[in-house]
């Protein structure tokens, strides 16, 4: 008996289905049969790199500061009140990125950073996103501070370099929102 049903897919799932469909039709460079007797294609990386260059980035309105604290530091409570923040901890230090209007006692601080968010969510199977963006900016001598989350990446650039960063990214076929 046929039972009609409706599947609801996330944007990421739709993107991956379209990518798989187009990849199978247009760019397989080799067909192989894996150990589970299923067919799979080995794809050319050229198309994937072209696809990656068409990503959309959103310039966030906040200006950020990047703080460095000793490794054993407790995270200050005001961090958790911020609308957006990033925390990274290693054996050597704690790094905290948060909007500049929130002040912290820290060993070192870098002010005046703007964030470009890669509009996501991005699948874990996608590779080279951060590499491609940082390569474009490095070629223009623009330093970055990168943060990755489960869903996406954030690229922070100094406020005085935002205009140059946006122009370089647009010249490389990235779409920019919020600029």
Describe this structure in words.
The termini are far apart. It contains five helices and nine strands. The N terminus is likely disordered. With 179 residues, it is an alpha+beta fold. Helix content is 27%, strand content 34%. A hairpin with a 5-residue loop joins strand 1 and strand 2. Strands 3, 4, 5, 6, 7, 8 and 9 form a seven-stranded mixed beta sheet that branches. A two-stranded antiparallel sheet has the order 1-2. The chain folds into two domains: 42 residues, no CATH class; 122 residues, VC0802-like.
Describe, in short, the structure shown.
The chain has 179 residues and is an alpha+beta fold. The chain contains 5 helices and 9 strands, in the order H-E-E-H-E-H-E-E-E-H-E-E-H-E.
- The overall pLDDT average reads 79
What is the H level of CATH, i.e. the homologous superfamily of the largest domain?
A: VC0802-like
What Rg do the Cα atoms give? 20 Å
Overall structural class, as computed from helix and strand content, comes to alpha+beta
CATH class assignment of the largest domain: Alpha Beta
Please, what is the oligomeric state? single chain
Low-confidence stretches: 1-7, 27-53
Largest sheet: 7 strands, mixed
Shape: globular
Number of helices: 5
Number of domains: 2
Got a strand count?
A: 9
User: How do the helices and strands follow one another from N- to C-terminus?
Assistant: HEEHEHEEEHEEHE
Strand percentage: 25-35%
The helical percent reads 25-40%
**End-to-end separation:** 54 Å
